[in-house]
Amino acid sequence: MTFDTLGKAALHQMLLTATCRRCGRQAKFVAEDLARVYGSSRNPHTLPFKCTTCDAKDCEVRLMGLPFDRKPDTIIWRPTKGRR
């Protein structure tokens, strides 16, 4: 199944991982949280991620199931809309 909207990904309790193509830094978000901020009809691959390490805006977005055996040191970020 393809998840072309945040609403579909949230319905299936997906985790979104944004990986910077320049430096490799990763950030993980719960799709439901992103759907609240950006709207449930938004395509997850068009979200405006920006790397906090190298300031690049070129990020690869992947969706995966929310792992039940998540490691305690895994950080899941909460989305916020900042100034542009």
TrEMBL record:
Protein name: Uncharacterized protein
Organism listed in the record: Ciceribacter ferrooxidans
